[in-house]
């Protein structure tokens, strides 16, 4: 059986979630009531039977390292293989690499030493539930040098403007990778490549002074490489802005969409924090809301997402909002179209109202 290892490349991902990424990288942003965005990328790899996963992290990775620890939540705390968190190491005076090729170059030992035959490289901004064994089967059948993963979206949203789009012929070969604003074949920042070819292309890109592996090693060489496309059909969200985070979070309040992303066959794992069940007091009124454990609710909550340990006092009203861990909403406060980061306190009688298209974001540990 062919072995596959994973690399989650955060090097080129911009932290564009405003206040939510003041103190953390985008991959560490909480999502869906109890997860972090990176949980989906790692879970997809472990569910696809990868025994080695590396994370390329360049900046604001303290929160990420605290969350991932040794990888126990994903069964990656192993003697052989496992989870490797690889922050930058620029101690080689002969290193001439640039951009994310610095990460590939400085961690080439991970690629060389893994027993895998193939490498999957993924980002963290595409939330999905994918089986990479299907991608591998497609790759081998087509005889491709590289297989990129895309999804055909029903509707293009603002977050798709900056995403690469694929033009594909009748044989599923990629003929162009561009930013066509009308193209609905959205590249999901995932590709599978032979380990030896990956090493060869890394060295080639560095020798030519390149700075972005996908752009210069794959996109710029479509005429030389056989790059095939694998279509992913399933729940998908691209999160690269506060607006896309807000909208895609609330899509999960739809039971059908929720069950498409979270299913028993391929569960999404995260760091476990045991807490008591949530408590709903007699004055509470909660409708169409995701509520994590450890919450205590006395007020009115509708169409919202509450993370662990949130306290909502009697008379408080929360609508269309995301309330992260350990926030406290005091009596008679009103929140609508608001995102509260962790450990915030909203004082008695305070009103915060954002727009549905542009929610009001409160950074972590702020009292108002």
In short:
By secondary structure, this protein is α/β, with parallel strands linked by helices. The protein has helices at 37-47, 62-68, 100-106, 108-113, 132-142, 195-207, 213-218, 242-251, 255-261; strands at residues 4-9, 30-31, 35-36, 52-56, 82-86, 118-122, 126-128, 146-152, 165-168, 174-178, 185-194, 227-231, 236-238, 279-280, 285-287, 290-291, 296-297, 300-302, 305-306, 311-312, 317-319, 322-323, 328-329, 334-336, 338-340, 345-346, 351-353, 360-362.
Characterization of the model:
With 368 residues, the protein is α/β, with parallel strands linked by helices. The protein folds into two domains: 4-261, Alpha-Beta Complex (Spore Coat Polysaccharide Biosynthesis Protein SpsA, Chain A); 279-362, 3 Solenoid (UDP N-Acetylglucosamine Acyltransferase, domain 1). The chain has nine helices and 28 strands. The chain has helices at 37-47, 62-68, 100-106, 108-113, 132-142, 195-207, 213-218, 242-251, 255-261; strands at residues 4-9, 30-31, 35-36, 52-56, 82-86, 118-122, 126-128, 146-152, 165-168, 174-178, 185-194, 227-231, 236-238, 279-280, 285-287, 290-291, 296-297, 300-302, 305-306, 311-312, 317-319, 322-323, 328-329, 334-336, 338-340, 345-346, 351-353, 360-362. A seven-stranded mixed sheet has the order 5-4-1-6-11-8-12, sandwiched between helices. The chain has a five-stranded parallel sheet with strand order 14-17-20-23-26, with no helix packed on it. Strand 4, helix 2 and strand 5 form a beta-alpha-beta unit. The longest helix is centred in the middle third of the chain and has 13 residues, at 195-207. The protein is elongated and about 65 Å long. The mean pLDDT is 95.
């Amino acid at each position: 059986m062919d072995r596959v290892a994973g690399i989650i490349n955060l090097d080129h991902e911009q932290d564009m979630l405003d206040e939510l990424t003041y103190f953390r990288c985008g991959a560490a942003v909480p999502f869906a009531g109890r997860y972090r965005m990176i949980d989906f990328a790692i879970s997809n790899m472990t569910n696809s039977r990868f025994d080695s996963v590396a994370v390329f992290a360049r900046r604001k990775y303290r929160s990420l390292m605290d969350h991932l620890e040794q990888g126990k939540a994903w069964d990656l705390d192993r003697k052989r293989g496992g989870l490797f968190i690889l922050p930058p190491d620029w101690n080689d005076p002969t290193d001439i690499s640039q951009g994310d090729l610095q990460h590939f170059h400085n961690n080439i030992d991970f690629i060389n030493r893994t027993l895998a035959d193939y490498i999957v490289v993924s980002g963290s901004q595409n939330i999905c539930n994918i089986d990479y064994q299907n991608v591998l089967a497609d790759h081998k059948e087509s005889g491709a040098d590289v297989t990129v993963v895309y999804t055909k979206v029903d509707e293009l949203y603002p977050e798709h403007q900056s995403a690469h789009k694929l033009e594909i012929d009748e044989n599923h070969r990629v003929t162009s990778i561009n930013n066509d604003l009308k193209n609905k074949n959205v590249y999901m920042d995932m590709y599978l490549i032979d380990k030896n070819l990956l090493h060869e292309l890394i060295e080639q890109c560095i020798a030519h002074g390149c700075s972005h592996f996908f752009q210069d090693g794959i996109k710029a060489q479509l005429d030389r490489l056989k790059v095939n496309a694998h279509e992913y059909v399933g729940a998908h969200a691209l999160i690269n802005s506060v607006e896309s985070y807000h909208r895609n979070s609330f899509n999960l309040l739809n039971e059908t969409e929720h069950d498409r992303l979270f299913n028993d066959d391929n569960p999404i794992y995260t760091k476990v924090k045991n807490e008591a069940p949530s408590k709903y007091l007699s004055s509470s009124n909660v409708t169409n809301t995701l509520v994590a454990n450890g919450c205590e609710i006395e007020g009115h909550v509708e169409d919202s997402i509450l993370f662990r340990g949130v306290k909502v006092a009697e008379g408080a009203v929360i609508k269309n909002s995301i309330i992260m861990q350990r926030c406290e909403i005091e009596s008679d406060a009103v929140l609508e179209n608001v995102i509260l980061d962790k450990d915030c306190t909203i004082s008695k009688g305070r009103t915060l109202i954002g727009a549905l298209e542009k929610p009001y974001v409160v950074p972590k540990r702020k009292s108002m």
